[in-house]
Design a protein that fits this description.
Layout: E1 6-12, E2 18-24, H1 25-56, E3 59-60, H2 61-68, H3 73-85, E4 89-94, E5 97-102
Antiparallel strand pairs: 1-2, 3-5, 4-5
Helix pairs in contact: 1-2, 1-3
C-alpha cells in the first residue's frame, strides 16, 4: 500500500542550508494528478475557444467566455495562452477590449 511510504523533498534556505520535508507519497501523486487534470482542462477549453473563433470570427474575451460557456475568465485566458503558444491566434485591441481571431 502506498499510503505508508514517504517522499523526501530537499529545499535550500537563503543561507544555503539544507532543510528536509517529509510528505506522504500519496500527496505527491495527488499533486501530479491535479496538474494533469489542469492541463487536460486547459486543452479542452482551448478546443472550445478554437471552435468558437472558427464559427464566429473575431471576438472579445467576454464574448468568447459567453460563446464557449467556460466558467471563469481565468480559464479563457489559459486556453488563449495555449492557442497563442501554438501560433494559432492574432490579438488586437478595440478601446478597452482585447479582440482575438484565428490566424
Amino acid at each position: 500500500m502506498l499510503a505508508g511510504l514517504v517522499l523526501i523533498k530537499i529545499k535550500y534556505s537563503k543561507h544555503f542550508l539544507r532543510t528536509y520535508r517529509i510528505i506522504p507519497i500519496f500527496a505527491a501523486f495527488k499533486s501530479l494528478k491535479h496538474k494533469e487534470n489542469m492541463i487536460e482542462t486547459i486543452g479542452m477549453n482551448a478546443g472550445l475557444v478554437w471552435n468558437a473563433l472558427n464559427d464566429g470570427g473575431q471576438m472579445s474575451v467576454k464574448a468568447l467566455k459567453k460563446a464557449t460557456k467556460i466558467k471563469t475568465e481565468k480559464d479563457v485566458y489559459a486556453a488563449l495562452g495555449w492557442l497563442a503558444k501554438e501560433g494559432k491566434l492574432a490579438f488586437s485591441e478595440k478601446g478597452a477590449d482585447l479582440l482575438v481571431s484565428l490566424l
